[in-house]
Amino acid sequence: MKRVLLGLLLAAGVAARAAAPFFPFCIDWHDAKKRGFAEQATMLKELGYDGVGHIFLPKLAERIASLDAAGLKLYQITMQVNLAPTAKAPYDEQQFKEALALVKGRHVQFLLLMHGQKPSDTAVDARAVALVRGMADRARDAGSQVLLYPHVGDWIERLEDACRVADQVDRPNVGVMFNLCHWLRVSKDRDYQPLLTQAMPRLRAVSINGADEFDSQPGWAHYIQPLGRGSFDMFTFLKTLRQLGYTGPIGLQCYGITGDVRDPLAESISAWHSYAGGTSSK
Fold first, then answer.
1. What is residue 252's three-state secondary structure?
2. CATH no. for residue 172?
3. What residues make up the domain containing 198?
4. 219 burial level (CB within 10 Å; 0-12, 13-18, 19+)
């Protein structure tokens, strides 16, 4: 009897460790129902998500109000940084200042999509490092983090790029995010453990989704699917993250998934619970 009880307690402990904060983002881009923020918050609460990620800086106050009313958390805000020499400014400083005031004390992560230069071009490092340091110093007073977001085709395209720049920035509130779909598109190597191990000192967020491990087509249809679908072994990936000591938030990438967004969100959180409970090996 004692052995059975111990086994149940150990299993519960594993499930608890697996239950990292889980939230979707990009949910309003292709939703056939075109839900507003309040409707989205109600839906996310009903489905059991912890919060949501917000794309770009406009309408942030409205998003926060809708989440507060539903008792949900705003985890991340994605913003673009244009490093092109012809850009009028890398980003809208006034909007960023206003956003920081709105999220002060909420421990929100700002995800930087840094583009406007050739992918992985180290000649841009010095300028980018100075820019990110300035943003990080502003974000620190609001209790926020600044994360470098690898995105296919951008200057920061690979997790290795994000880690290189974050190490040079050398601020405690600057980290990196691993994005499964972009890693699958960019990397030819499917051995993610060494990469995650390298990134762990700076790894502050991870995004996942259902995906096929290999796809010869140029589009996103196979690389972004509802969680639980595709040939990529998500159970082992999440297990690896836990073994490496990752305890941060995990975002669900929903970009490009069409139809009523409630359906893939419901499917995805069911898969998430199966991974956390150790009942799925897919």
1. strand
2. 3.20.20.150
3. 19-273
4. exposed
